[in-house]
Amino acid sequence: MESEIETLLSQNAVPIINLGKGIEDVAKNLRKALSEKGYALLINHGISNEKIQTAWKYFDDFVELPDEVKLAYERSKAPDAENHGYVSPGMERFDGRTPELRHAYNICKLQDKFLPEQQLPGFTSHINALVGDFNELGRFILRALAISVGAPPSFFTDKHSYMLSDDRFSLTTLRLLYYPPVEGEDHGSCIRCGAHADYCTFTLLAQDSEGGLEVKLRGSERWERVGHLPGALFINCGETMAIWTDQLYHALQHRVVVPDQVDTRLRGRHSIAYFCHPDNSALIDPKELDFTTNQSINGGTHNAYDIAMALAKGAYAHNYS
Ligand SMILES: O=C(O)CCC(=O)C(=O)O
Ligand SMILES: [Fe+2]
User: Fold this and answer.
1) Which of the pair, 96 or 226, is modelled with greater confidence?
2) Residue predicted with more confidence, 267 or 154
3) More confident: 314 or 241
């Protein structure tokens, strides 16, 4: 029996956007959700739940492999290294201190030589198919977002032409995540994923259960539990989009805590995040969208890559010293 916990969803406080309703309607609802709250849940999004679950199953099998095999796929620890690769528990700490209990696989390259195809036959083609679905959905959202700010529908898609097709030109990433069960009461000094806002344009997130996802709403200092709507995708606005819209859209602070509820804590949690980034060279200029601004980072207009790197260095400054 699932513990009854109060969540934003149980209080009917979550914007739920039906993507089957036509792009103008989606644009209107995204504008309201991302400006007021910074997030929403998407239903009728067209990504098969079964495909998502198969990806989690592959990742479970990966996590079970001996450490020396997993380490061969590890993401480099160098400061400005590529993001692609396996991130073992404890390797990343958003706040630089608190141990983070998760396995992650950042996928930025889709060819089998960069993936554990040998250990997990079929992984490459499965991930390629899933990425195809996320890219298609991502492009639909980008068109809706352009409409939502009164720009031509292709405004954002024109600046997102390399999403997971060539990682030399885009930071777009599909990230598989597994948070192991947490046994015992003494988990106060650990977190599943530390507080942060994503750097990208927006993130799409699938989760398999209520497992501790919390958000800080615009203008609030309080962490609130989101809740789980089976099959829905969570969308949150990233820092790049907040800069682009001169903060009309709110980059959502979020984290994943180790839940106090024993049944939730003893259950592993799976999620998949699709971080949609502009092309590295795309200039993020709010004035192009008729937002007058004096808020772009360090004064001038920057390209998407420089913005993401500046944000990463801020978030992971402890890794660079
Ligand atoms: O697993 C989750 O629900 C969130 C993960 C996340 O926020 C991230 O990887 O940026
Ligand atoms: Fe995140």
Assistant:
1) 226
2) 154
3) 241
**What number of other Cβ atoms are within 10 A of residue 115's Cβ?**
23
Distance, CA of 273 to CA of 138 (rounded, Å): 12
Number of domains in the chain: 1
Residues with CB under 5 A from ligand 2 (ion): 198
Q: What is the CATH number of the domain that holds 132?
A: 2.60.120.330
Contact 147, 24 (CB under 8 A): yes
Residue 103 and residue 89 in contact, taking contact as beta carbons nearer than 8 Å = yes
What confidence category does residue 319 fall into, taking pLDDT thresholds of 50, 70 and 90?
very low
- Point out which residues pair with 177 in neighbouring strands: 104, 271
Relative to the CA of 271, which ligand 1 atom is closest? 1
Stretch 157-177: mean pLDDT, rounded? 97
Which range marks the domain in which residue 296 is found? Answer: 2-319
Within 10 angstroms of residue 7's Cβ, the number of other Cβ atoms is 18
- Ligand 1, atom nearest to 207 Cα: 3
Name which of 170, 173, 148, 150 is nearest 159 in CA terms.
Answer: 170
- Residue 57 three-state SS: helix
